[in-house]
Specification:
mainly beta; Tick-borne Encephalitis virus Glycoprotein, domain 1; 6-stranded antiparallel beta sheet; 31 strands; 7% helix
């Protein structure tokens, strides 16, 4: 006897779209200056809520008067050596602790953007960078009970070792991959500096560089446990340092200058803006150039750009497929499906689980142009194991 069994297949299609983040379009036949920053190219860093954060720029400067500049003649499309210049410099930002309390243990720290990404300048040195792991907002708080640990990210954790409400003291310890880095006994009701835990270390060639800050806002007793509330926590990765030195190369750009305040790169090779072409000058950044004659007076149009991949969530589609399974005649047709434990999919069955494929690392992109990319399907199947077990059982009995 043949029994038709329905297998339910969950088929999910995950789409990945390529998004081009482009800068302002310029016309070689009608241009007086060639410069982009965070206000006219979304690939460059610009934090709207941080005053003075628009510190990255890419510009063209004609350094050879014997060669006509781009814009001097509409058809000139050659960028000579050292004429394409990238600059970035630091800007200061207050620690949340110093902005929200009277604590004096820390004041400000320096942020240095690099190719659109935000880094922390170690001890305010632009050439020594690290990443920000955790920063609590002004209204954010973390409640921990005695003995509990807080996973801060990248292997760092903070543990409440002891909490003495009667004495107004709490003992906090900072760990990295299970090894204690620093600890401090703080007041739970004293002056702001007495509630502040600042961890320093020698790293990135700097002495006593700050890498961790937190503040005890309050301590209290619950029904059975004691708790502490932490605010204004700030943590950078002291073990992952990016150093920029003169002559470091980034595609066609080479570092020409570093200082405490900033970094300058320029092209160490000639760059030709070929018509109807994409011309890369770093691994991720490129110029998009129009056809000849699309600009004023026979010139061309061009703009800087980069591509990012945005992968979308996919709703799996339920597909029902029938297969034939042979079972002994001794099993009645009415009981076979029940015995095998097979359930047919309802016409409107839904699979509710979702898979997040990924997300863009881009912090700022204004009005990007989307270019659909090739879609990649992903497939999953849900098989009824009792079907196989039952078939084997009937075969054995036969």
């Amino acid at each position: 006897m043949l029994v038709f069994i329905s297998l339910i297949l969950a088929v999910g299609v995950c789409s990945a779209d390529s998004v081009e983040v482009r800068g302002t379009i310029l016309d070689s036949g009608n241009v007086s200056s060639i410069e982009w920053d965070g206000s006219n190219w979304g690939a460059l860093y610009f934090a709207l809520n941080d005053a003075g954060s628009n510190t990255e720029s890419l510009c063209y400067e004609n350094v050879d008067p014997e060669n006509p500049a781009i814009g001097a003649t509409p058809d000139n499309n050659v960028i000579d050596e050292n004429e394409l210049i990238y600059r970035t410099h630091t800007y200061n930002k207050k620690f949340k602790l110093s902005a929200k309390t009277d604590a004096t243990a820390v004041s400000t720290y320096s942020i240095i953007p690099l190719f659109g990404k935000k880094y922390i300048a170690v001890n305010d040195d632009a050439s020594k960078m690290t990443t920000l792991i955790t920063e609590q907002g002004g209204g954010s708080e973390k409640t921990l009970k005695e003995g509990e640990s807080w996973d801060l990210g990248k292997g760092y954790s903070l543990t409440v070792k002891q909490l003495d409400l009667d004495g107004g003291k709490v003992w906090l310890a900072l760990y990295k991959d299970g090894a204690e880095l620093d600890s401090k006994i703080l007041s739970t009701d004293g002056a702001d500096d007495e509630r502040t835990f600042v961890a320093k270390d020698d790293f990135a060639g700097k002495e006593d560089a700050v890498y961790f800050v937190t503040y005890v806002d309050e301590a209290f007793k619950g029904a059975s446990d004691c708790f502490v509330i932490l605010k204004y926590t700030w943590l950078v990765d002291k073990d992952d340092i990016t150093s920029i030195e003169v002559n470091d190369e980034f595609g066609a750009l080479k570092c020409t200058e570093t200082s405490v305040d900033g970094i300058t790169l320029s092209n160490d090779q000639e760059i030709t803006l070929e018509m109807s072409d994409t011309v890369y000058f770093t691994d991720d950044w490129y110029f998009r150039v129009s056809k000849a004659g699309k600009g004023t007076d026979g010139g061309y149009l061009f703009y800087p750009a980069m591509k990012i991949i945005v992968e979308d969530k996919a709703e799996p589609e339920v597909v029902t497929e029938e297969v034939e399974v042979e079972v002994p005649e001794s099993v009645s047709e009415s009981n076979s499906a029940e015995t095998l434990g097979v359930a047919k999919a309802a016409p409107n069955s839904e699979v509710t689980n979702r898979q997040t494929v990924g997300e863009s690392n881009k912090e700022s992109a204004e009005n990007p142009i989307e270019t659909p990319a090739e879609k990649t399907p992903g497939f999953g199947a849900l098989f009824t194991i009792p079907v196989i077990l039952a078939v084997l059982s009937f075969t054995k009995r036969k």
